[in-house]
Design brief:
Radius of gyration: 24 Å
Distance between the termini: 35 Å
Helix content: 25-40%
Number of strands: 12
Strand content: 25-35%
Structural class: alpha+beta
Largest sheet: 7 strands, antiparallel
Number of domains: 3
Shape: globular
């Protein structure tokens, strides 16, 4: 259980969070199969097979949003509709109007939808009730927003707030890259994206490239800002930090993985050991990152 792309949110619950209450809340909105005429269904699923919506390990909670979606490509609808339109035009000796073609396409979609294949996917989240973190493992804004929409519909009294820091990620990353030195606990990696501050938004990307030389400093001196920067924390976790304060492409390095599950005797114990280690190390990484960014902006 190793997360890959982190979206960080703060929780300020009106009362201490209780796993039983959260379990009961999620159980009210489980994932249901898509109906015959539904394209997508969303709901909570069990993170593990034991039949609980909240998987708790050492006071850390793992949640899972399930999404079932019909696979009905627009190209299939268009092709089927065109075939029917061709047959109708030959039969009636005239060309179908735009309105008739649109209505035919809609009828075809309705007919094909119940026969469409479905696929399922899962979006994972880690909730730290001790420190007030909600961390969504999502590689795109759409996936994160999808999770938050279902969260809001399920837990409307518990609104996550995106993490805000006193110093903007862009300002901090630009300074680190210009100086060629990362803050305490971190090391600069070989991934970097620079963008022009002007409306043109031209970009320069470096991958597997030494970013300590004069070339990068010259770009920054010319007015470019850093919007993505590769970092390694304490020789344990490598990641790319971006201008939205997302941690992308996490890689848990060998020195950390070797600590996990040394005494695990089966897959279940290994899963829990991985999750506990990941949660503990990420919580410490977040503390160091907040310190490097001047601390957190507290809500008014």
């Amino acid at each position: 259980m190793w997360f890959r792309n982190l979206r960080l949110y703060r929780l300020r619950p009106p009362r201490p969070l209780d796993a039983g209450w959260l379990e009961a809340s999620l159980a009210k909105r489980p994932l249901a199969r898509c109906g015959s005429f539904e394209m997508v269904s969303r709901g909570w699923v069990y993170p593990r097979a034991e039949g609980a919506f909240v998987h708790a390990v050492e006071r850390q909670w793992l949640l899972a949003l399930g999404v079932e979606q019909k696979l009905l490509p627009a190209s299939v609808i268009r092709q089927t509709a065109q075939e029917r339109a061709t047959a109708l035009e030959a039969e009636q000796g005239r060309k179908l109007s735009r309105k008739e073609m649109r209505e035919l396409t809609e009828r075809v979609a309705e007919e094909l939808l119940p026969k469409a294949f479905t696929q399922r996917r899962t979006t994972w989240a880690w909730l730290d009730p001790v420190h007030g973190w909600l961390v969504i493992d999502a590689g795109s804004d759409a996936r994160a927003e999808e999770f938050l929409e279902v969260w809001a519909a399920t837990l409307d009294e518990l609104a996550p707030r995106p993490l805000e820091t006193q110093r903007s990620p862009v300002s901090a990353m630009t300074a680190w890259a210009a100086e060629g030195e990362a803050p305490a606990g971190f090391a600069l990696d070989d991934v970097l994206e620079l963008r022009a501050a002007s409306e043109a938004q031209s970009a320069i990307r470096y991958v597997r490239h030494d970013i300590h030389g004069p070339e990068v400093a010259a770009h920054i001196a010319a007015g470019k800002i850093v919007t993505q920067l590769g970092l390694t924390w304490n020789d344990k976790i490598a990641f790319v930090l971006n201008d939205k304060l997302h941690l992308k492409r996490l890689a848990f390095l060998d020195v950390l993985r070797e600590q996990s599950g040394q005494d695990a005797v089966n897959a279940e114990e290994q899963f829990d050991a991985d999750f506990a280690l990941m949660a503990g190390e990420l919580a410490r990484l977040f503390d160091d990152l907040l310190l490097a960014l001047g601390g957190e902006v507290k809500p008014q």
